[in-house]
């Protein structure tokens, strides 16, 4: 029995959709969409694509060939994913070209030649080549707390939590993917249950989506593991709900960008030789998805080692396992949202400082920041209810953060992002004066627990809200 297709992802001209419309129709509603017209000036679309429309593998190998990357063997399963192999980009390109020539230069479909079908995934291209501006993130996706933060701070605050190798693997969530025709990615939901966007520099992809309301249908009877390949012979006894699933599908062409919302399981196939640029990201609109995943994975981690519950370091062990398995733990997440609360309050203060009447664009920016703070507050309340994030010795001081170079860079990046989104240039000068910030009673704020964070946000909204009321 084939898949039941019940919906198709809408395609719209991205140049005709304002940021507010994108938020209202897609981001806030958690709905997928394909946007066209957003890649016309990308350097990658010129340098990485041959005149015949295929990947310019010679250019990529010549300029970036020494990079070490993770490559998936699409024909070999390893646990819940494809087997990964480490090689250089030039070695990967050589493999691709060899198999392509064996296929008379056409789209590779390398598996047909009896050779491994390799797919380069999760290449941290931006981190490796910051001077080479391959593309610019579309404005609709620019409110990216995850990558703004990782540009300034490590996700893990405990040096024992992660190895250096794994720290590199989560240094950012901006990736390049390259694969021949026939390469594919198994069914999955994205890391942190984040949003993602994927832009086809060249080639064509076929996407199959399952809405979050149906995700239980691809799990086994124990809700522990999911279907690996939706086109394989799926066991009805192991996955009794699979045949009931109703899928959405989408064919993504060259120069199209797809928005993948939180919690939508998806499987993706390259219909042609393809290069894509992908980001994972989250912000105030899907922060609750991140927290819900952390809480679920924490519960599973603690249940798994329940026999050690009497140990003094049981909680630390749970948090260490959570960081290793999920990509962050309660402490990492708590520090993350506190710093974003501080940064948003700092930008809000500067917007109101000395202003008599905000413009319409300023008002939109102010409302955006209010929404962010309310989103963070709602998560802090949930954390408070289970005493999550509280850790002896972890203290975030607003005054000290305002003296910290990394935080000041985060603060400036957040402000510039909201300038871009809301077409505001008038606050640039104010943002550049961040060292002169005075917050009256707020400047002495210290946050050590989720309860403290709730209090800080309440105080900030009470004090700074008055700056914008008539």
TrEMBL record:
It holds the Pfam family Cupin_8. Residues 126-298 form the JmjC domain. GO terms for cellular component: cytoplasm; nucleus. GO terms for biological process: positive regulation of translational termination. Signal peptide: none annotated. One of its GO terms (molecular function) is sequence-specific DNA binding. SUPFAM superfamilies: Clavaminate synthase-like. InterPro entries: Cupin_8, JmjC_dom, JMJD6_ArgDemeth/LysHydrox. PANTHER family: 2-OXOGLUTARATE AND IRON-DEPENDENT OXYGENASE JMJD4, ARGININE DEMETHYLASE AND LYSYL-HYDROXYLASE JMJD. Belongs to the JARID1 histone demethylase family. This is JmjC domain-containing protein 4 isoform X1. It comes from Nicotiana sylvestris (Wood tobacco).
């Amino acid at each position: 029995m084939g898949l039941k297709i019940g919906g198709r992802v809408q395609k719209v001209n991205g140049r005709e959709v304002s940021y507010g419309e994108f938020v209202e129709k897609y981001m806030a509603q958690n709905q997928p969409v394909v946007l066209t017209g957003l890649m016309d000036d990308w350097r990658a679309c010129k340098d990485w694509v041959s005149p015949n429309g295929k990947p310019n593998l010679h250019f990529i190998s010549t300029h970036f060939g020494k990079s070490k990357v993770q490559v998936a063997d699409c024909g070999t399963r390893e646990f819940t994913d494809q087997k990964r192999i480490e090689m250089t980009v030039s070695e990967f390109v050589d493999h691709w070209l060899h198999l392509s020539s064996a296929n008379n230069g056409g789209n590779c479909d390398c598996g047909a030649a009896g050779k491994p079908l390799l797919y380069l995934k999760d290449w941290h291209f931006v981190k490796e080549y910051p001077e080479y501006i391959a593309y610019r993130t579309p404005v609709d996706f620019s409110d990216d707390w995850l990558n703004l933060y990782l540009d300034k701070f490590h996700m893990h605050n405990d040096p024992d939590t992660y190895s250096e190798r794994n720290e590199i693997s989560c240094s950012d969530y901006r990736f390049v993917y390259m694969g021949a025709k026939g390469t594919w990615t198994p069914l999955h939901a994205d890391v942190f249950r984040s949003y993602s966007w994927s832009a086809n520099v060249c080639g064509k992809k076929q996407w199959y989506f399952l809405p979050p309301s149906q995700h239980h249908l691809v799990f086994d009877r124990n809700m522990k593991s999911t279907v690996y390949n939706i086109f394989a012979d799926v066991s009805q006894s192991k996955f009794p709900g699979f045949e009931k699933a109703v899928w959405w599908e989408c064919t993504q062409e060259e120069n199209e960008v797809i928005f993948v919302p939180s919690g939508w399981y998806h499987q993706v196939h390259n219909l042609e030789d393809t290069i894509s640029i992908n980001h994972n990201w989250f912000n105030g609109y899907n922060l609750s998805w991140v927290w819900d995943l952390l809480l679920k994975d924490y519960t599973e981690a603690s249940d798994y080692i329940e026999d050690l519950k009497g140990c003094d370091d049981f909680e630390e062990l749970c948090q260490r396992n959570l960081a290793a398995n999920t990509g962050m733990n309660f402490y990492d997440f708590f520090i993350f949202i506190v710093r974003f609360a501080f940064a948003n309050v700092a930008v809000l203060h500067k917007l109101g400082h000395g202003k008599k009447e905000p413009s319409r664009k300023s008002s939109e920016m102010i409302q955006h920041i209010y929404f962010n703070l309310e989103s963070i507050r709602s998560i802090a309340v949930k954390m408070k209810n289970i005493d999550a994030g509280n850790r002896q010795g972890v203290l975030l001081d607003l005054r000290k953060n305002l003296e910290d170079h990394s935080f000041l860079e985060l603060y400036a990046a957040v402000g510039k992002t909201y300038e871009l989104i809301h077409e505001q240039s008038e606050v640039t000068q104010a943002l550049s004066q961040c060292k002169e910030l005075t917050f009256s009673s707020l400047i002495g704020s210290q946050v050590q627990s989720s309860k403290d964070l709730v209090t800080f946000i309440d105080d900030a909204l009470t004090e700074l809200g008055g700056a914008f009321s008539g």
